[in-house]
Structures are given as C-alpha cells and as structure tokens.
User: Fold this.
Amino acid sequence: MALLVLLGCGLFLIPAIVFAAPFLQLVLVLVCLSIYFLFRYNPFTAFLVFTFLYPFLPSQSFEALPFDYLEFLFLCFAFWWALGKVYTKKEVRLLSSRLTPALAFFLLGCFFSAFLVLLKNNYLFSEVFLLNLKDHWNIFIPQPVLGQLGPIRAVLYSLEGILFFYITLDIVNTPERVSKTTRIMSYAAVLVCVVGILQYFLRFHLVRFWVMDNPNLVRINATFSDPNSLGTYLSAVFCFGVFAYLYDFPRTGKKDLTLLAILLFAMVLTASRAAWTATVVCVLVLPAVGRLLNFDISANVRGALRGIVRYGFHVAFLVLIVSILSAAMIDERDPKSKSFLRVLLFTLNPRVAPNVVLKGRLDMWGAAIRMFEEAPVFGVGLGNFGNRITSAPFSLAKSENAHNYFLQILAEGGLVVFFLFILMIVQIFRTGAERLRSANRNEFLILYGLFAGLVAILLTSFTGHPLLLLKLQFLFWSFAAMLTFGAKSSSPKRISPMLFGTAIVLTGLVQAGIIVHFRHISAYEYGYYAWEKDLTNEPFRWTSSEGISVLEVRGRILQLQLRQLNPDVLKQPFQVKIYLNDQLLDTVALTDTDWKERKYFLPDMKQQDHAKLRILPQGTFVPRKFGNDTRNLGIEVRRFVWLCSGGEQPIGVYEREEENGINYYWTQGQASFPVKGPVSKLSFSVLPNSSVLTSPVEAQLFWNDMPLKRLSLDRLQWKQVDLDVPDSSDGELTIRVSRTANPKRMGQSMDVRELGVRVTWPFQVQTSKSPVPERRNLLEHPRLYAISNVANRPFRLLAFSVDHPPPVPVVLRSGLALPIQPGWLATVQSPNPWVSLFSVESMDAEHAHESGKIRLPVNLGTGYWLLRVTAKGYVKTPEVPVARVAVDNREIARQPILSGDWKDYYLNVELGSPGKELLIELVNDTPGPADKSLFIREVLAARKEEETELPKPGWELSGNNMVIAEPIDNDILFGPENYCYAMVGD
Assistant:
C-alpha cells in the first residue's frame, strides 16, 4: 500500500513541476526538497510543520491563484513519508486500524459511484475523456469547471483525506505527540483568527458573494474560502480546547482561556449560525447526552468547567427559550441584518419561514432527495451534484453543493455510499468511545476534546459542506486518527469483510452492466472554455487549440456560427477546418470580426445516433493586450442548432454568379441543393477550383441520405454530370469536395473565399413515367407548445397542425421511432372520465388566489391520474410565468405558461396514497417591470384504471394540434428547432 502511495504521489507531482512556469518550477523543487530534509531530520517535526501550515495555504477555492499550493504541499509530504516507509523502515503496508475495513468499503463505494457516472453516456471510453484527462492531469492548476471529470476530483479528495488519517496514525503514535500536535493546531487556529479579526476591521480579501449577500454585515473568512468553512474550523478547535485546556480553570489554563477567547470572538465574526449552534451543542449539550449514555465526564474536570458540564444543558435550554421568545416579540424579519445579534433574532423568529431562515437550503435539500430518487443505488455520481443541479428539472443558474453533506453523499453516492459513510462515522465514534473508557485522566480530556471537535464538524455538515474542502478534511481525519490511535484492528464477527466487499463489487458491476445495456449517447465535449455572452446577450464560448463535440443527431441540417475577434484577422484570412467523424467537412476563411454562419446537410448520418464534430482553428492567440486574460483562444462558437429543413435555396454556397450566360454557385466544402417535385434524373455541370492544376479534386454526391457517385475532377474545365436518382418526390442533392482553394493564399487574386466547385443552377430535372410513391408529411414546422415534467424528467411539447391524423401514427425523430400510446387520444377526447376539481364559476373564498397560490382540497385515490389545467399567463416579459403543480406537497410538474390565451396543459401523476390537496402556484413572480401573472380557469382530473400502465410521454390532441413530447437535452439551448419531426401512416 505504501508503494501505491509513493507511485500515486509521484505521478501527480511530476506534471505539477514539469508544466509550471520556470520560476515556479524552481520554487516547487525547493519546497519538495525542503520537506525531504525535514523528514530526514525528524518525521514528527515535518508533520508538525505541515499541520501548522495547511490552514494558511491557499486552495483551489481561490480562483485568482494559478496554483493549488495546499494539495502540492500535501502530496510532497505524503511522497517523502511513503518513501521513508519503503526504503528506510522496509514497510509496504499502512498501519493497521479498526477503521480500515470501514474506510476501505467507503472508498470502494466512492470508486464505483465515480466509475458509473463516467461510464454513463459512453463517456469513459471516448476520445473526449482521454483528452480531458490529459488536460487536467496537472491537478494543481485550479479548474473553474471540471465538467464530467468532477467525479475523479471527488475521489482524489476522499483518498487524500483518508491517506492523511494513516499518516497521522503512523507519526502521531504516542500520547505526548498527540498533546504536541493539538497544541500546534491550536496555535495555528489562533493565528488564523488574528488574520480574520484584522480582515474585519481592514476589510481586505472579503469574499464578494458574501458581501453581495449582505452588504450590511462583514463576515470574515481569513485564510478559508468562505465564512462558513472558517466557522466550522474554529468551532472544532474551540470545542477541543475547552475540554483539553480548561479542565481545572481558574487554577490552571488562564493563558489558554485567552487563546480560546480569541477563537470565540473570531467565530462570532464569521456569522456562521451552524458554527454557533455546533459550539453550543458540543460544549453545553454533549456532556448531558454523555450522562444519559452512562458516560459522565464530570469526574475528570474541576472548577468552572465542572459547572458547565453539570448544568450546561439546562442553561442552554433556558437561553434558547428566552431567545425564541425575544425573537418572537422583536419580530426581526430582515434577512440582511446589520448586527450579529439581529442575525440571531432573525434565525430564531418563529414567524419567518424555515426556507427563508436557511437561505433557500430547503430547495437544495429537496433537489438532493429528488436526485437520489433518480439513482438510488450508487447515486448520480460522486462529485456530480454541481453539474446536475444546473440541469433540468433543477436548472439553477450556477453550480452549487447541497449545503448538507449527508444529503449530498446520498444524492451523489446513493444508498450504498451513504450507508458506508455512516458506517465509517459510527466506527470512528465507537472506537473513540472505547478509548475514552480505558484512558487515564490526562489522555481522557484530550480524547474527549477530539471527540467534541469531530461532533462539531459533523453538526455543521447538516447545513454546510466542510468535508468537501481539503483543509477541513485534514482537520477531520487528523482528529479521527488521534482519537482512535492504539485501538487494535479487529474484524466484525457477524459478517466477513471479504463477503461485504464482494457484495459491493457485485452490486457495482451489475449496475455497470445495466448502464452499458441501456446507455444512450449524450452531448459531451473537449477544448471549450466557459460560456460567455456577447453584446447582443447571446451565449458563446471560445475554443482552445481545437474543440471536439460529440453530439446527438437531432435533425438533417447542422447550423454553426463562428467568429474571430483577433484583430490580426483583418490583415490575413484566418482558416478554420471543420471535421465530421474525422473526415474534413469544410474549411472556413474568416476575414473580419463578424459572425459567420454555416449550414451542413448531413446525408451520411442516417444510421447514426451521434456525430463527432471537430473544429480546428488555424492557431491560437493570448489576448493580453486587452486585459489580464491569459487563455489560449482559438475562435468563438455559438450553440449548435439542428434544423429540419434547409428551405427553398441551396445551403453551403456563396452568392449566385453569372458568366457567359451560365448561372452558377461556388460551393464551400459541402453544399446541398433542394429539388422540389417528382424527379428521376438530374443534369448539371461542375467546374473544380484552381487547385486541380496540382492534383485532382474529388466530389462525392449524395441524394438525400444515399451516396450516389464520386467524381474525380482533374481538369480546369466544365464537366457535365447526369445522375439517375431513385424515383421520388422532393429531395436534396449534396456535393462534398475533398479540397477547397483560397485564391488569395494561392496568390491568384484578392478573393479570400474557400472555394469548392462551381455548380450550374437550376438543375435540369427529368421525371419518370411511373407514378412516384406518395409520402404524406403531415407534420411540418413544429412550434413550441409547453414544457412539462414527468417523474422529474423534463420534456418539451411541440405542436403541429393536423387535419387528418393517421389511425396509428409513428413519430420519427432523426429516423428513430418514439414510443406512442394511441390510448391517450381517447382519454383526451372523451369528456366522460373528467372530474372537475376547480373552475372559476364554482370558486369560493376557500379557493381564492392568495399570494399567487390556489390550494384545492381534493379526493384523488391511489393510482394513475391525468390532470388538465386550463391556464393563461401575462407573457409580455422576457421570462414567462411558471406554474408549480403539487399533490400533497409533492411536486408533479413545473409548467411554463407560454401563451396569453387560454390553453389546456396535461400533466401525469401517479399516487401511491390518496391525494388530499392540490397546490398550483406561481413560482417566479418578481415585482416591478418584470411582474408576471398566472390565471387558472379550470382544473380537471381523469382517472386511469389500476391495471393500466402510466402512459409514456408520447402525443396527445389539443384542438387541431397534435402535441408531441420529447425529452429535453440539458446541454443545448432550448428551442423548437432542436428536434426534427415527421409523421407517417399507412
């Protein structure tokens, strides 16, 4: 195991030093060598130095810093420690501990959770995964967005924390060393407090988010990434210090009281209510809980602390009651309080809604629970919560954590990892309790302080995320190691660790098999920077040296928009090559800073669900002269759009020209020409570009999605082309050339275009004598109808005009059949099963609109129901009103009301128990110019039989519209053009 640590640390240290700037390389080598000499001198001294330093080191949370010094220092430390064990002590195994089975199982569960999310959507075995892994191999360079590599980072953090546990066990192996280590930790915490107190008075390096959240109150963060994390750190050290240093106050511990007072004062300045609560509970309530469990510590303490231990719970309870009554009488409701006392009064005010007190955390907790319901076994993937929370149905504006570490573990790791995490925590406290019972008085007080510090960290984890941060992981695991050191390893009697581990592995492999069997291709990419917005508020992003996107095929035509803002483009044309599935599709010449649009008909995508698009700019530039931007930028790219039809005119061509009475188009790398009406033969002429003088140019011809012919053009002259095409009505001829030519680059003229071949237009069309098989395209030009959630999966509803729908329709999306339930149509058309739950004619005071809500007492039995809500909205704002529909406080849909006219919205619901209350509320109302209104005219319900399956999202009839539901892809800009539809019938 020590050899693995040595190899792993070296694997990550090498790229950190090799890829750093030259001056930084020298600094990193000196740091690494300094740690080596410290270890050669004394490993325990090296451990104390690291323990003292790590609270002060910047971490990845500081986005402005180019390097993660904390992680680099730790891996240097772990590297020399492992090297000492292997080459000096000749040991390759880590120190045994009673926690080892629980820690091993927890890491195994974390591994499978991360592995499964990387396996999903075919990402793990893709070229994009390897490219992203290569770019992020240097883990010390802070990455604002790791994207789908987030699970690897999460597993590494867990590994590093648990590795520090074993290092602490190995080095801090005597009571005297525990005492010295905790002293050093306390002194480091006091210095952190000094930085924080100075920050409070001088206002330096305040976190912008917390300043914006409440500009009336200064919240310090000192050397930590946010005030709540600092609060957790100070609470844990303070709780430890109270029991470890004030056991005989005032006879001893007067100097320690001063240090603890500084810790307490700084903790108050963090305004972290979780830290305040954890401190009160650990100092005043925890001893009382211990007495209930026959674990009385009062015999080991004297003086003032004995009184706190005996009567602290009663004092805490009395103060809490008085505080709640005071808060109720003062009625403080301002969430942006100007003093720490008002923060407390606002928090304890019973008139303020809990979600307001918790600053929206209940919404995050609900999202975590719904995320867990999506994947209950191994979760949505360790480290993947931030990515999922920005996607539908949650759709937060920015990546967030759950603000509850336990719920985050449940959502990301599922029941397996959550159970293993709880098992690990229980084993820590169980082992610590056994050590406390057998310890002498001096050891007991330090161990009890460590116990209280761990409890403080876990209590703050209910509303925060301390164990997501490396600094607090080191604090937690060092406390756990010192609390449990000396406890001999023992295996559980009832269940074999091997059997338990085998069960986890088999569960993970079964889950992996299910994913492989049912996986689908989803969009993922490489080589793009974060999304930005241009002056027209349209989203775009920069590529780096290349951009690769694996896209789900959603239509016949792919539309791109490119732009180059490098001013050098005005002096020399800038080329961009576009590849489709590793074949050159087009070469684009950019000559100015305007957006350039390209459309490509994709004839060879007929049998493919996905396509790999590669955008390769001619070069990159660093825009240092425009600011502090140090990125290597290629070109700007807007969101990709799939189109159903190219229209009446050719696409992929330049302006129409005429020469000697011949009308023609110059093509780009690929061009498509629409042919309307019946056709069996096409005739036209082509002329290649001037590069044909050096080598032949090939042109590949497609009719719709069928390859027809390859032309080899070796002369600079017109060539007549006669093509026999399958008898059909309407179609698309696509010409793809092997090479384009830029006349300006070739020194022939000032023409900067990338030219393919000249094609005469219009074509000469011949029709066959036999009748062309008729194909009815009943659905054209879909329009957005609504968005709905079914079982927490978002769907877009697109409406089409249908005069005579076929009896058994088949909906095709990119050639793939969607599931259809014709039984839906009968339910929607027939008025017999509908039961009225609400209508404006029967509205009384009980149903009145209050604060944008309607609460309806209903009597819906268990089973499947279809709800029809007739609604309209005030939609003259950029954001349409959104109605939240819930049964017994369980959300079943979040429905945007996209029309100012009365429309019927159909919603599915499955009730496991009778529904007693229906809630419909406007959830995105904002006062002022962006005010929105929601109007409800009628709510009906239709019962489905128990034995019938809940209809899948398919289609339904609304007036003269056929409404079709499609799952929303969270990775693309929403719009009706993102999917193409056709309906055919017998």
Summary: The chain has six domains: 1-92, 94-171+370-384+404-439+447-519, 182-352, 524-643, 656-766, 783-984. The longest strand covers residues 662-688.
